[in-house]
Amino acid sequence: MAIVDFQFNVSLGREVELYNRIDSNDPTNSAFIMMVLAASGLEQSEVLRDVDTFTALVSGTTNEVTNTGYSRKTLTDADLSAYTVDDTANSITLTLPAQTFSTISTGDSWAMAVIGYDSDTTAGTDANIIPVTAHVLRISNAYIVPNGGDIVIDFSGGFIVAR
Predict the structure, then answer these.
(1) Beta strand pairing status for 130-136 and 110-118?
(2) Please, which residues bridge with residue 7 across strands?
(3) Burial of 5 (0-12, 13-18, 19+ CB in 10 A)
(4) In this predicted model, what pLDDT tens digit does every residue of 93-135 receive, in sequence order?
(5) Fewer CB within 10 A of the terminal residue: the chain, N end or C end?
């Protein structure tokens, strides 16, 4: 899994702040939300990187997958670990635990995972979720084609490096 294929303009320079807010549980109920986008209708990254919310992300031809068994993942403070500043590389690598999507039925091919910041998972809507990063999903240089098995998306090595 690549660190990041692109970062959304709305979150540029804010990735560590948003991560730290969730890890500190401030505000309460803040979380990262992982959404998977379908290959069919997927707009170019140059178009997608300009959107400011999850609502705007899927308002054009881009769609969230609808495979049976799929649901978004919510990553809270309990899922995150404190980040470490790497003074040698002059960077901070932000990690997320591996996420298993169990028994995903055939249907949409999976093209991209999007990590977004939700400041309040109990009251928020897609219009309140700020997209942070997008990651192309490929196996052997092809989009993921679910077949009833599990799909694991692993960002434990880092989903973004802040410099």
Answers:
(1) antiparallel
(2) 133
(3) middle
(4) 999 999 999 999 999 999 999 999 999 999 879 999 999 999 9
(5) C
pTM of the entire predicted model: 0.95
Q: Report the 10 Å Cβ neighbour count for 9.
A: 11
Q: Which two tokens stand for residue 137?
A: 């999903």
Q: How far apart are CA 8 and CA 146, in angstroms?
A: 27
Cα distances from 16 to residues 45, 93, 107, 151, 155, in angstroms, run 22, 9, 35, 27, 15
Closest by CA position to 107, among listed 69, 150, 57: 69
